[in-house]
Amino acid sequence: MGRILYTIDRLPPPLLLAEERLTTIPRGERLVIPNLHIAPDRRAKIIFFLQADFETSVVGRPPLHIRTGDILFVPLRVMQTYRAMRNVETTTRTLRLVLSPASTTSTDSTLADAFRDIRHLPHGMTPRHHELIHQFRSEIENTRPARRLMTGALALELLVESLRCIHEFITNEHPGTTDLPIDIHIRRAKEYILENYEKPLTLADIARSTRLSREHLARLFHQTTGHTVFDYLTRIRIEAAKSLLCDTTHFANQIATLSGFSSEPLFYRTFKKHTGFTPSVWRRNILKNSEFEPGLRYQPARITEATPDKEEVGNELDRAKAIARRAESPPPPLPRRNIA
């Protein structure tokens, strides 16, 4: 089963749309993701895994273990299968950027090279990715003027950040080698927060990861980003809480703990201060305004590397074309949210 949280189309070229969704992989089953001939203009996608711990497999290739923070570059002519790593139901949350046909033949070699094959970037999401996704969601959730222009600009920057990461991956360059010394310290602090936000962090803990004093880090972070270290930490915890709220199996007290808040009342106060809603109201609104998509195909969990027979391929193509027709049809008003 899948639930589309939002879809934004008519993005600037080479982008076509951005979509955030929840997908459930049932216990003991595998989920087939058809990417075959979906439509002439559905040529490639970048998938950001915001919440994930599962195995994906493509015929003829070794399986990949996908975790939270990974990025996957997927060209058109592949069919993926998702399978939970443990014998339990697994929920994944992803943000997908879908690109036009020009992506695979672009005169920009970085863009063209990125989609020559399936490429997996373990822990590929940088602090900048998280910041852009946070801004992207904020523009969608609020009614600011010219937010369509802003969402388009943020989506393009998200694409550029990802292409630079894949370029470093392909050429075996070490990420961040062009950073200035100040940028390196700030990046280390952000990465440490992203990896440990659920823990009771102190400024001393974060400063230790950068090898700076607490006072120096606090001053440098504020001068560079315009925010305090704890402003950034709170924002990351709020985003983590939003992801968990979309999974209706978690209770508020569990979400508070998993997001790094020391108590449920503190979680409620902080969440309402930053979003304008209590966690329960925010959850109700986001699920009410999302599009339920039950039609994904599930199969027994055993994954084989054999080539599918003609009937199976035909069924997958029919399913893919149906998805394409729905993608081309007028958008439902709630999840797409008309943007000025």
Query: Counting H and I runs of at least 4 residues, what is the number of helices?
Result: 13
Radius of gyration: 20 Å
Shape: globular
Q: Determine the strand fraction and express it as a percent band.
A: 15-25%
Sketch the major β-sheet. 7 strands, antiparallel
How confident overall, as mean pLDDT?
80
CATH homologous superfamily placement of the largest domain: Jelly Rolls
Instruction: Supply the CATH class of the largest domain.
Output: Mainly Beta
Count of distinct structural domains: 2
Low-confidence stretches: 37-41, 173-180, 294-310, 323-340
Order of helices and strands: EEEEEEEEEHHEHHHHHHHHHEEHH
- Looking across the biggest beta sheet, what order are the strands in? 10-7-4-9-2-1-11
CATH third-level topology of the largest domain: Jelly Rolls
Structural class: alpha+beta
How many β-strand runs? 12
Helix content: 40-55%
